Amino acid sequence: MRKLVGLWLVILILGMTVSAGMSNNYAAAVTTSDPYQEFWDILNREAELVVGIENGNLSLAPELIQNSRLGAENAANISALIWQALEELKASGVKTYYTAEELREMAQNISENGLPQETVDALKAQGWTDAQIRALEEYIVQNGANITEDFNMTAFLEEFSMAFISVAFKYNHYEAWALEKWKWTQPAEAPTGNKGEIINPALSGDWVILYLRYSQKDYQGMDPAAETLKESMYRLIMGTGGSVNLLSYERTTSLSQLPGSVDSVKWSKNGGLLFTVTARRMTTSEVITEKKTYYWPNALRAYELISNVIALVKARNYGNNNAKIDSILNQKIAELKDALKVIEVSSEVTKTPILLLKSTSGTATTSSITGGGEVIVSGVPVDESVLVEALDTQNDSGTLVITDVSVVVDKNVPSSVEYHVEVSFKAEDNAVNNIRIKVKDYTARDSDSGTVSFLNAGESYTWKSSRFTYTHSSGGELNLSGEVEITYTPSCGAVPLLQESPEASSTSPSCGDRTITKDYSATANLTSPVDWSKVNVRVEASRTSITEGESVTYRVIVENNQNVELDGVEYSVTIPFSPTNSRTYSERLTFSRMENWLFWRRP
Question: What torsion, rounded to 10 degrees, do the Cα atoms 392, 398, 399, 405 define?
């Protein structure tokens, strides 16, 4: 319990200082155990590898891929550790919400008496040095009076935990980026195909097993299944060839499983892949060899998405029980299924009498899909309804896509800027219900939310937030940034004409709530409140004329003749003593309203 209280105080103090504008660097050291030390080691190496590849050293790509995998798993682990700390704090019954006044009182007490000893002990136990602890105390002393916002420790830790999921996703992005830099050096033009889409047959078997575990909400089983699918993707993208189990499903007909091989791959523009597979099946009189070339337009995207699925599953298995993990996972699984779709580009079939060949062909199986029973896939029994849900590309559940996020400036005056956020989204494949939009604006440190009850397939909607206000005392450019989060419920099965009732929803997790997020950023040109025509510079001298050899006293004066403070004004005065000898004086100052300031005096 003493350790828990110490952790609580550390988090509280860190959160308090964050509310006063402190860097998150302190927060990252809440628990300086091995995972946290690994976090910094991996992050530093990641930065070095990214720079190296950007400078043309592609030999670093394999190491960046491995480092990114370590980073994503480390971030998922830390996310779970923070969530577990939050659950312990909730169970302990300690206070987790503090008003700004209470926080200022705590800061004042720390400035007078220093940090509580149990907090110091907890910090030292977590790797903080005496110098770092003193720096934290000094920061609290200097900034305690600036605390103007309440602090919700529960919300802080929830967001902090989810922030590490975003970190994991960023590592996954760099892993896919490393693959792109390595293999997509001279991408070919994307081909055209006139046949319908199917799930990638070279990956369908592994995908079905993953989808089976997902449908069962078997998160422990999802981990190895997702890792297996990712490894199969990696081999296919790398073009290492080898044997594969080709599984294909044609709606209303049958499921076929054929042993085959990947013969060739070619990388195409926008992260696509062309690959050729060969499969053989035997009849009583002949061996049928079928060679097909497929175009996989979203190969890189699928690779990044399976990495995101792995990060979410690991975070959950490590102990992050945030319901948002499940809704994000539902979204990523739906996106992954879509990214696994391929188009048949060409097909060539040859038939050879069986007497002319050795019996080396593999065994093919064809299973009729009747709507009930089980099918064996890679040695695992799979319910036919799950298999159809995983492989059917013509009966997808509804998906919401954010098409645009824009920042609209409503009012820009010398002292403030007012703006709102417009979020445009569209329902695809099927209808979507119960759409909940949240906007968190980092610049104004404000948020807004809204709902849309129903969108049918193909329908679009633009939601507008309330106004956010940012006050300022200077001109220049301002970055307006934040995050949009949308949670929705997809419709499954036949496209409904109206909003579905909760009872109509399927029990499959693929039909459960999904969450998507998107960052936004825009630049606003601030109108300066300073009227520079009311800022005057003049020189005063002790006499108007002098004789060579005599001394004169003079000074430079700035007059701020307006009711606006000039903050952070830099001045520079250069005094020439001779054509080859001069001296420059400079300083950064703040001028109060209606104030004259003596810049420099020289006798």
Answer: 160
pLDDT tens for 40-63 read 999 999 999 999 999 999 999 999
**The residue type at 48:** E
Candidates 275, 397, 389; CA nearest to 343 is 275
CA–chain centroid gap for 84, Å, is: 21
pLDDT value for 576? 75
**Averaged confidence pLDDT in the chain:** 84
Residue 112 has pLDDT above 90, yes or no: no
Report which secondary-structure segment, H or E, holds 178: helix 153-183
Beta carbons within 10 angstroms of residue 149's beta carbon = 14
DSSP three-state, residue 70: helix
pLDDT for residue 437:
98
Question: What is the spatial distance between Cα 213 and Cα 219, in angstroms, rounded to a whole number?
Answer: 7
pLDDT for the residue numbered 457? 93
What is the spatial distance between Cα 563 and Cα 534, in angstroms, rounded to a whole number? 10
According to the model, what pLDDT value does residue 32 have?
Answer: 41
Cβ 441 vs Cβ 423: under 8 Å = no
Q: Report the Cα–Cα distance between both ends of the chain, in Å, rounded.
A: 69
**CA 282/CA 289 separation, integer angstroms:** 9
What own/partner pairs with CB < 8 Å and gap ≥ 24 does 370-374 have? Answer: none
**Helices and strands per DSSP (H, E), number in the chain:** 12, 24
DSSP 8-state symbol, 542: S
pLDDT per position as a tens digit, 239-274: 987 888 888 887 656 778 888 999 999 999 999 999
* DSSP three-state, residue 205: helix
Strands, E assignment, 250-340: 254-268, 272-282, 286-296
The vertex-250 CA angle with 247 and 255, nearest 5°, equals 45
Residues with Cβ within 8 Å of residue 11, at least 6 apart in sequence: 30, 85, 89, 153, 156, 157
Spatial separation of the C-alpha atoms in residues 473 and 416, rounded to whole Å: 8
pLDDT greater than 90 at residue 323:
yes
**Residues 6+ positions from 293 with CB-CB distance below 8 Å:** 274, 275, 276, 344, 345, 346, 347
CA–CA distance, 169 with 155 (Å, rounded to integer): 21
Residue 284, classed as helix, strand or coil, is coil
Q: DSSP states of 254-269 as a string?
A: EEEEEEEEEEEEEEEG
Q: Which amino acid is at 568?
A: G
What's the CA dihedral at 202, 208, 210, 213 to 10 degrees? -170
Average pLDDT over residues 29-39: 66
Dihedral angle of Cα 164, 224, 213, 157, to the nearest 10 degrees: -20
| Residues 381-417: tens digit of each pLDDT | 999 889 989 998 887 789 999 999 999 999 988 888 9
Q: Are 233 and 175 in contact (CB under 8 A)?
A: no
Residue 551 pLDDT more than 50? yes
Q: Kindly list the structural domains of the chain, giving each domain's residue range(s) and its CATH number in brackets, ordered by start.
A: 2-171 (no CATH), 184-391 (no CATH), 399-526 (2.60.40.10), 532-602 (no CATH)
> Is 22 strand, coil or helix?
coil
